[in-house]
Amino acid sequence: ESQIKSQKYMRAHFNYDPKKDRLIPCADAGLTFSDGDVLQILSSEDPNWWQARVVTKDEDGQTGLIPSQPLEEKRKAFVQPDYDYSKSSLLCGLKRRKKKKIKYATKNTTDFDRCDLSIYEEVARMPPFERKTLIIVGATGVGRRSLKERLLKDDPRRFGAVMPHTCREMRDGEVNGKGYFFTDRETMEDDIKAGLYLEYGEYNGNLYGTKIDSINHVTNAGKMCVLDVNPTSLKILKTAEFMPFVVFIAAPSAEALKRMYDYGRQKGIVVRRGDDDYRKAVEESAQIERVYKGLFDMTIVNDSFEDAYKQLRMALNDLGTESQWVPINWGP
Ligand code: 5GP
Question: Most buried residue, 10, 87, 124, 318, by CB count within 10 Å?
Fold first, then answer.
């Protein structure tokens, strides 16, 4: 890799200030950049220090030296504690609430390799296009479900949701494919073991869950599939197949969260929550952000439901008119 690659673009997943870098040979030659910036790699001849330009709308971004991927990998291997997110209580929230655990776990919900995206990610610029899915992630109780429901209600022709599978008996008047896809327990267990489910849980002795393939029913109908999922699913979903727009709904402060719930109560939306729950939501939110930040396209701090909803709608509309930087393997 000794030739000049001017067509290589990388999204940085960390902040960099050459003035604070003790390794750089000459801080004045360094390039300052922020988490999320797209960098054009002008030269990667030197194994440790690449020549790069910050990509801006006006093409007038600064150029300078940045630490190479291998250099940054070595450095981060020394300083980053390896937090095993997959063992945390965030897994399968629904299962936890119902207090009934099933023994096996899908291979999808474990082994998230956080190092994938902690340094640089190769990206390509694409003309405006619609993403196939919208993934809303965030801590429990910070509003992702409400945002999803609002989208589905306001524009049912543009947005759709996946239909879950269950192995419970069909009730009078129920139809397969309306509300649920009905199946038998054995098939469902096999499919769960085979990793075909995005999430699942057990309720009253019956299995319920969302099959990954069900997303295609929605996208094939020409709709954007809105998914409100555990962030552990991002690894399976952030692919060219599902082309997601990933939005993180961040918790505001515990006080602001409490105010929002108090306001909801005045309007008749009664949810039982204690001070501890607000604090927990804020902690969970920060934890999700720390681990999965590199996979988010956008972060919305939900300190007002109406504002958060407006921001989300605007961002979705912009996708149809502005060029987008996406993972390189999404390209044609
Ligand atoms: P019902 O059998 O009355 O239609 O649903 C009972 C419960 O099953 C729901 O309240 C919910 O807790 C659970 N459930 C429904 N769909 C799903 C799903 O897609 N995944 C999981 N894990 N649980 C579900």
Answer: 10
Residue nearest to atom 12 of ligand 1 (CA): 203
In this structure, the residue with its CA closest to atom 15 of ligand 1 is 208
Instruction: Kindly give the distance from the C-alpha atom of residue 123 to the centroid of ligand 1, in angstroms, as a whole number.
Output: 38
User: Each residue of 162-215: pLDDT tens digit?
Assistant: 999 999 999 999 999 999 999 999 999 999 999 999 999 999 999 999 999 999
Yes or no: say if 148 and 37 are a contact pair by the CB < 8 Å rule.
no
CB 210 within 8 A of CB 198: yes
Q: Is the pTM of this model over 0.90?
A: no
Give the CA distances from residue 273 to residues 8, 133, 258, in Å, rounded to whole numbers and listed in that order: 49, 31, 9
Closest residue by CA, ligand 1 atom 5: 203
Determine the distance from the C-alpha atom of residue 295 to the mean position of all C-alpha atoms in its chain, rounded to a whole number: 5
261's tokens: 């719930």
Question: In angstroms, how far is CA 77 from the centroid of its own chain?
Answer: 24
Q: Amino acid identity of 59?
A: E
Distance 182 CA to ligand 1 centre (A): 12
Q: Give the burial string for 295-332 (b: 16+ CB within 10 Å, else e).
A: bbbeebbbbbeeebbebbeeebeebeeeebbbbeebee
Distance, in Å, from the CA atom of 162 to the CA atom of 227, rounded to the nearest integer, reads 7
